[in-house]
């Protein structure tokens, strides 16, 4: 029966390989490992703001093909961190070996045994502080011996009944006082035991040994405290499988002899000294799942590449596309070491293209996968100011929020290679100051081997930056009855203005159209004067 189930499950995994996952995502739990992870100096964290700008949660749901909760947390953390020390060559070798020897689905089957939500809490065993026994608990340890003594002496000395009742009341108080600590472990400990067993099975696959050649030493350390942890497995099974009467008997037994708090504090003490070994096992299983997830993702894509990482602060890409947009129009890009300024009307594709660049750099640096035919770029830290809004709770206007965000970019611009992504810089202020301030900031950000991708409606800004930035644009075709967007990146600044023409197409009164044209001509003359003043 078990063999038939296993065979059926593996066949299902084969048929769904490369498919998009259909499940609910609890990002509060998925983020736990990432939020508490200690990082080295070579790691650059993708900020919450940049995540929001790049629609990171939607992106993660598309990329995620993991089968275990630790694997899902590991992949999330991997995508939120870019680091120059990542060994993609070894990762690709492991993926290739697992696909070639057809063991990938057997491994996915093993990983799927960690799909319960309780698996999210394993990381807390090595990332969070474990509970310590209070000083008074040293005395409580003698309570079980006194209970046994009272039970033995009670038939001979009836007065020991009062001693026994007092001990039971004391143990009852301590037992339920400790329940808050038990809740912490009732989810994580059974999953840790399962994680360790699965890690040992995974280690039998030769390709996976390259992830951690000393894994078995870590599993032996956990084996040394396995017997003490069995109490937490029993707790989980009683709650889920046995009837209330049996649960009551077990609970009474634990109260009489203070089993839960005594074992819990003993286990927590050992976990504090063995946290590093637990983390090694977690990372081994998590990385295995993440690598298989990357393989499944690639299998489901119509086009992808492994990027070439260079030392030059530039981006080259052929047929690059946005993975979340069905039938997305691909575009070629060559920065030639210069930043990019995009012009174009609303809905023409400017902001989407900027996000496309950001997402491809992100996935290229974290999972060695780009949504393009070819791609090459350097290690960039990604910073963005795309989706900015008023912060009413902190009494910040849109403009002030934007000023502070861009100021943060300015401070980071001299620290490392940066990729700055901006949409409509300083659109929260008036035209003259927007153009003047925008030009000054964009010139500053483009120095020190940084690359800037910025969109604007201000043709004047493009004119001011033409010697420092590569100019590109998106445009639409307007005829008598329709507006068509081709979403193709084009060289040079936008020259056509169709906004008033679109008003006319939508049957705005003739007087409005004539008035708008006249005002536009006057504005052009004022802009020419402003440019000469600048």
Automatic annotation (TrEMBL):
The keyword DNA repair does not apply. Signal peptide: none annotated. It comes from the Bacteria. The chain crosses the membrane at residues 145-174, 244-267. Keywords: ATP-binding, DNA-binding, Membrane, Nucleotide-binding, Transmembrane, Transmembrane helix. Residues 337-521 form the DNA mismatch repair proteins mutS family domain. This is DNA mismatch repair proteins mutS family domain-containing protein. The lineage of its organism: Bacteria, Pseudomonadati, Bacteroidota, Bacteroidia, Marinilabiliales.
């Amino acid at each position: 029966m078990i063999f038939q189930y296993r065979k059926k499950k593996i066949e299902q995994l084969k048929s769904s390989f490369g498919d998009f996952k259909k499940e609910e995502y609890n990002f509060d739990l998925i983020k736990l490992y990432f939020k508490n992870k200690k990082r080295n100096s070579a790691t650059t964290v993708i900020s919450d703001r940049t995540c929001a700008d790049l629609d990171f949660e939607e992106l993660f749901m598309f990329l995620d093909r993991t089968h275990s909760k630790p694997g899902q947390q590991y992949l999330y953390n991997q995508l939120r961190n870019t680091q120059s020390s990542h060994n993609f060559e070894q990762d690709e070798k492991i993926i290739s070996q697992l696909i070639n020897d057809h063991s990938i689905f057997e491994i996915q089957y093993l990983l799927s045994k960690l799909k319960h939500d309780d698996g999210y809490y394993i990381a807390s065993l090595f990332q969070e502080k474990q509970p310590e026994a209070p000083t008074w608990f040293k005395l409580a340890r003698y309570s079980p011996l006194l209970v046994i003594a009272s039970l033995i002496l009670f038939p001979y000395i009836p007065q020991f009944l009062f001693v026994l009742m007092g001990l039971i009341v004391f143990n009852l108080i301590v037992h339920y006082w400790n329940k808050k600590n038990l809740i912490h472990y009732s989810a994580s400990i059974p999953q840790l035991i399962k994680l360790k067993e699965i890690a040992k099975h995974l280690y039998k696959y030769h390709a996976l040994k390259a992830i951690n050649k000393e894994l078995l030493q870590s599993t032996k350390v956990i084996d040394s405290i396995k017997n003490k942890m069995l109490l937490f497995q029993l707790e989980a099974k009683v709650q889920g499988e046995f009837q209330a009467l049996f649960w009551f008997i077990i609970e009474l037994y634990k109260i009489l002899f203070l089993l839960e708090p005594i074992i819990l504090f003993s286990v927590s003490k050992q976990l504090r000294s063995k946290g590093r070994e637990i983390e090694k096992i977690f990372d081994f299983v998590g990385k295995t799942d993440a690598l298989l997830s990357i393989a499944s993702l690639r299998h489901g894509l119509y086009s992808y590449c492994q990027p070439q990482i260079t030392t030059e602060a530039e981006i080259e890409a052929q047929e690059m596309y946005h993975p979340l947009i069905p039938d997305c129009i691909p575009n070629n890009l060559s920065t030639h070491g210069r930043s990019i300024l995009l012009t174009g009307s609303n809905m023409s594709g400017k902001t989407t293209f900027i996000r496309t660049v950001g997402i491809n750099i992100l996935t290229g640096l974290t999972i060695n996968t780009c949504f393009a035919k070819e791609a090459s770029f350097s290690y960039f830290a990604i910073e963005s100011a795309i989706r900015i809004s008023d912060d009413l709770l902190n009494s910040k206007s849109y403009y002030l929020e934007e000023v502070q965000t861009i100021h943060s970019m300015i401070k980071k611009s001299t620290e490392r290679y940066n990729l700055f992504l901006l949409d409509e810089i300083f659109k929260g202020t008036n035209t003259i100051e927007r153009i003047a301030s925008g030009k000054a900031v964009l010139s500053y950000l483009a120095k020190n081997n940084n690359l800037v991708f910025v969109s604007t409606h201000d043709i004047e800004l493009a004119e001011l930056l033409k010697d420092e930035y590569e100019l590109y644009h998106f445009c639409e075709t307007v005829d008598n009855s329709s507006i068509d967007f081709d979403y193709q990146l084009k060289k040079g600044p936008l020259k056509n203005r169709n906004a008033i023409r679109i008003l006319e197409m939508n049957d705005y009164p003739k007087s409005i159209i004539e008035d708008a044209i006249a005002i536009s001509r006057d504005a052009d003359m004022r802009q020419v004067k402003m440019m000469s003043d600048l």
